[in-house]
Amino acid sequence: MEKIIEEDKQGQSLVLEQVKGNTRKLFIESYGCAMNFADSEVVASIMANEGYNTTQILEEADLVLVNTCSIRDKAELTVRKRLEKYNAVKRINPKMKVGVLGCMAERLKSQFLEEEKIVDLVVGPDAYKDLPNLLKEVEEGRDAINVILSKDETYGDISPVRLQSNGVSAYVSITRGCDNMCTFCVVPFTRGRERSREPQSIMEEITDLWSKGFKEVTLLGQNVDSYLWYGGGLKKDFDKASDMQKATAVKFDQLLEMAAVAFPKMRIRFSTSNPQDMHESVLYSIAKHPNICKHIHLPVQSGSDRILTEMNRLHSREEYFALIDKIRAIIPNCSISQDMIAGFPTETESDHQDTLSLMSYVQYNFGYMYAYSERPGTLAGRKTEDDVPEATKMRRLQEIVDLQQQHSWSRSSDFIGQTVEVLVERTSKKSQEQFSGRNSQSITVVFPREDYKIGDFVLAKINSCTSGTLIGEAIGYSEMN
């Protein structure tokens, strides 16, 4: 594997991994969650073994794959527009093959292949190893599809090809699937039941990244706090495991400890957590190790107990507050971010006010906020009328966004006058004379470049801020270098 340095459309340097001698070209785009981007790197590795190197030029591709998201209607509309673009290019280059990967592939397989005939192959999240066989079927003139969900596939035996990497930070997948049947979410149906990846393979992947100069990894899963390795199998079957398997099982806090101790000069992040599954042991691990980042993404979705019940969120408002209080007590400098849905079916103005009051209690550093979008196949989509008017949804969403903006300003202002450690990740989007990176709390920091370089850990004194960015000056290297 050799590295090629290219620039993206914003002039940022990208490190592309290429296999010498490969002659075919793969163009791959990813949408949705970080897990999709990590999956695309697995796909690129599988296809590298079939003679494909990745390209950023659509027109030169032999194979075009789009890794899709079904969590919101807007994401599906975006993918459909991209498919129109791919097929316009394909009319000029008929030898080019087009495929759909991921969650949307599983949900809309028949429409894509049989009704609309806009793709050549459809591949679900657990079937990427079957891509070479599916391509052979396409080359023989047949439509190809595999969306079968697996009980044990984790891709732990595949070394991902890093796509459009900054050479500094990387994703490492540790779990797949989800057992939490939130009524608004398609993930359990498109990604299957929850299973964890062998710890040794995770540590080997981090070791490989460290040897290549990476300085930060993010441990990924739909619900990382449910990580549980007991020798393989679904999490739900752990009760059937042998006494030896139970005694030697590895949980998420132990995995965090293993990574932090083995790689003391590498930052460790993780995402995403589910409030009902986060335990104090994880909080103490974060507090104990300076290289485990002090940021927790803790989706709540609503501040109303009634709506939380309708969503099948297995925690109450008060239980969420209790967890927030524990985080603040054990990790005082921890940032917390949220996911929030406005206008879930049957949501009243009182429910909405409960959400705003929850936000005021927590005062998140930042968040991801959306109006409810009905997803076919989910329990809410099947059994609950989407009865909140669109105008009401958008008004409530704006109120949530406005309040979050206030809290983000307040939280960012707290850093003024402090010195923070920043991992330099890229040139600032606004100025070639500045670098950009994140501190431990996952807040973006910008400062003059001087003689520093991408990949350095730098101490920066914060002089001012916006709601989402800290602005400072570098005062030296940190001990992490």
From TrEMBL:
The chain positions of domain TRAM read 413-476
Q: Entry's PROSITE patterns? A: MTTASE_N, MTTASE_RADICAL, RADICAL_SAM, TRAM
What does the Swiss-Prot or TrEMBL cofactor note state?
Answer: Binds 2 [4Fe-4S] clusters. One cluster is coordinated with 3 cysteines and an exchangeable S-adenosyl-L-methionine.
**Binding annotation for [4Fe-4S] cluster 1:** 33, 69, 103
Q: Which UniProt keywords apply?
A: 4Fe-4S, Cytoplasm, Iron, Iron-sulfur, Metal-binding, S-adenosyl-L-methionine, Transferase, tRNA processing
Names of the cofactor(s): [4Fe-4S] cluster
Q: Does the keyword S-adenosyl-L-methionine apply?
A: yes
Q: Domain MTTase N-terminal spans what residues?
A: 24-140
Residues recorded as binding [4Fe-4S] cluster 2, renumbered to this chain, are: 178, 182, 185
Catalysis performed (reactions): N(6)-dimethylallyladenosine(37) in tRNA + (sulfur carrier)-SH + AH2 + 2 S-adenosyl-L-methionine = 2-methylsulfanyl-N(6)-dimethylallyladenosine(37) in tRNA + (sulfur carrier)-H + 5'-deoxyadenosine + L-methionine + A + S-adenosyl-L-homocysteine + 2 H(+)
Instruction: State its location(s).
Output: Cytoplasm
Does the UniProt entry include the keyword Mitochondrion?
Answer: no
Origin, by domain of life?
A: Bacteria
Q: Quaternary structure?
A: Monomer.
The Swiss-Prot or TrEMBL record describes its family as follows: Belongs to the methylthiotransferase family. MiaB subfamily.
* Name the record gives this protein: tRNA-2-methylthio-N(6)-dimethylallyladenosine synthase
Organism the protein comes from: Flavobacterium kingsejongi
- Name of the gene: miaB
